Amino acid sequence: MMATKSLDARVDEILKGLGSRATGPRRKVARLLASKRGAFSAESIHEELPGVGRATVYRTIRLLAEAGVLCRALLPDGSPRYSFDHSWHHHHLICSSCETVEAFRSAELERLLCELSDEIPGRVLGHQVDFYVNCPDCLKREGPVEAHTIANYGG
Amino acid sequence: MMATKSLDARVDEILKGLGSRATGPRRKVARLLASKRGAFSAESIHEELPGVGRATVYRTIRLLAEAGVLCRALLPDGSPRYSFDHSWHHHHLICSSCETVEAFRSAELERLLCELSDEIPGRVLGHQVDFYVNCPDCLKREGPVEAHTIANYGG
DNA sequence: GCCGATTGTGATACCGTGTATCACTAGTGG
DNA sequence: CCACTAGTGATACACGGTATCACAATCGGC
User: Fold this and answer.
1) Is the backbone of residue A93 left (phi > 0), alpha (psi -120 to 50) or beta?
2) Under an 8 A CB cutoff, do B129 and A127 touch?
3) A149 touches chain B (CB under 8 A)
4) What nucleotides of chain C have any atom within 7 angstroms of a protein Cβ?
5) What residues contact residue B79 under an 8 Å CB cut-off, 6+ apart?
6) Among A10, A20, A115, B49, which residue's CB has the most CB atoms within a 10 Å radius?
């Protein structure tokens, strides 16, 4: 009766690996996170877990994000969305219109970023690359839309 | 007596170009922004302009950012810093330790991002690329430092 | 130059995201 | 099973930013 290790057991491992205790609230948060497909706000997680305090939800999200279990994408207005990092290192396609967040991977991009890191003075800790888009669904629904958000998007 | 066009005149042009009025408060904000070298918070601008209301400072910053006159960099914790976009399109080197923001340009990176944009489904509006670093000064001052911020930096 | 339509301003109140505090609770190692 | 420590949840607070709204400044037409 353990062909696939239960999610709770995996979460316990992750938490132990962080030197943190595996507690009920943390398991609840992690379980909910892992069950979700897209990216979501900390607040929405809190709303779905009435038994868990707001502070604990935020603390747990931070813990998991620092551990790399969650990743964070920023909407054009800067508000963060979290998603379970099922896959490995990736960047994001963020729809300015419907705010959905998709994963995006490019080996070539990673290679170049890595090369550039060598040219940058100081020590590079990491990078953040996000594409702001109109997703195909929104284009279909609304036709080409103007971007009316912070524009230092650049080109 | 107009060998170099005054900053106010240039700002007026920019504002007109946006279909906005050139007003005293906006000129004050723009003038202060243009005089600064690094990146700064909206709040700090407000503090330096006691005569101008907080809402007006934020509105003006938004206006100029949307116009591409200002650009926005995000510290590892997500808090925004604004800088006057003297140069052309660039990305940022953000020191996790002292929070200074430096411009960074790479033609090769732009080329690749542009290529990738063609492969991305939907319409790409723009991108955000930031490198999180320990700047040379901080490395000298403190020695290699651990990053203890949100870690979806990736690699 | 003045005048009215319109845009912008500033005070205030509010929202969203997140952290500090602190009395209390629940894991954990012996 | 106990004691020690880490975690929890309520509350209060901080910060960045927006909505509202009465009032002021701007600007185009005359």
Assistant:
1) beta
2) yes
3) yes
4) 7-13, 16-21, 26-28
5) B41
6) B49
Judged by CB atoms closer than 8 Å, whether chains meet at A121 and B136 is answered as: yes
Per-position pLDDT tens, chain A of length 155: 444 456 778 888 889 988 999 999 999 999 999 888 889 999 999 999 999 999 999 999 999 998 888 999 999 888 999 998 876 788 999 999 899 999 999 999 999 999 999 999 999 999 999 999 999 999 988 765 554 443 445 44
A82, A128, A139: best to mutate for the B interface, most B CBs within 10 A: A128
CA B83, C1' D5: Å apart? 46
Distance (Å, rounded) from C-alpha B94 to C-alpha B3?
37
CA-to-CA dists, residue B32 to B37, B39, B40, B82, angstroms: 10, 12, 11, 12
**pLDDT for the residue B78:** 86
Does residue B131 sit at the A interface (CB-CB below 8 Å)? yes
Interfacial A residues in 14-53 facing B (CB < 8 Å): none
Q: What's the CA gap between B29 and B109, in Å, rounded?
A: 33
Q: How far apart are CA B51 and CA B48, in angstroms?
A: 9
Residue type for position A26: R
State the maximum Cα–Cα separation within chain B, in Å, rounded to a whole number: 54
Contact with chain A for residue B126, Cβ under 8 A: yes
Give the nearest nucleotide to B22, CA to C1': D26
Give the position of tokens 């510290």. Answer: B75
- Class of residue B137 by CB neighbours under 10 A (exposed 0-12, middle 13-18, buried 19+): middle
How many angstroms away from the CA of A1 is the closest CA of chain B?
A: 35
Amino acid at A115: E
Residue A5 CA distance to nucleotide D4 C1' (Å): 31
What's the pLDDT at B145? 56
